[in-house]
User: What shape does this take?
Amino acid sequence: MKHKLIGLLIRNRLILIGLVILACVAATGLAQRPSTASPSSLRAAASYLDGRLDWWEHWQNSQRDHDTACVSCHTALPYALARPALHRVLDEPEIAAPERIMLANVTKRVRLWKEVEPFYPDQTRGLPKTSESRGTESVLNALVLASREASAPALSEDARQAFNNMWALQFKAGDLKGAWAWLNFHYEPWESNASGYFGASIAAIAIGTAPGKYAATPEIQEQVKLLRDYLQQHADNESLFNRAMVLWASSRLPGVLTQAQRQAIIQAAVAKQREDGGWSLSDLGTFQRVDSTPLDKSTDGYATGLMALALQSAGLQRDDVHVSRAISWLLQHQDSSTGMWSASSLNKQRDPATEIGKFMSDAATSYAVLALVEKP
Assistant: This one.
């Protein structure tokens, strides 16, 4: 009787252990298969982005010379990065109307490069805004057209001209050797003292995105080397925001970072990940609002989207615990009524219900989309 009881206890214990193992395996399997965005949620994001770019293109303050509009870093540039990815995954037969207008504006300004006024002329905004405007716009134009043509067999003549305009303005000497003059209105994170590095990272993304193996074109290798050297030499001392950008850029243009630098940025990004799986823009640099209001410390869609995108571009898979948690946060925090992800200004306390108050959410939505659908 005693032996039977012992045998029964052993058997029950083995069954219990087996159930625990099965539960752990199941939990691991779930962790390794993170959810993906549904077509309906991506269509909602696309609708939000289209609406915002349409508003931007018709807003009085965005209007520029020759009936064109400024390519803004908060709304138009992120749109240009994300919208082609949405076209692909949603199998959309045609581009959206606001996107068509943006491409027409950029193409016009590329063709009339020597005739159109800069975004912010010295005569109305003071020195050195003409130089900053030209450098910034040359990079943005190349990025917009390269993103549109990424799947084409070769660069169009307009895109090639955009790159030619860009290369002509690359610094060949000085502290910015290899980079470009960049707009500085003391606004974080795109138009501040440190934003030249952001701009150079965008240039690297544009070059690496361009079709027809443009990055390997013999006639641009000297300029590409200057850019690589600039990004690599400054990477260790940049804000985590800029380092995330260059980590992403390094997946598009090889040689931008050393392996040690890539690993250091990954470790720094992971260290700032929050318990909820996301990141906050306030943690990605030393920022201070110009109106002296406190920074929003909440986890937000821009920081989380950017970090999830950068980590995936660096080789971390969707089943990596850090990526999986970030993706889960993004999937849980899309606004179901608008299709957007939210983020707050690093510069001023703004009403999120206003058009200007949505600028950071425009960027957040684009980068969230890229993190969810873009192939590294």
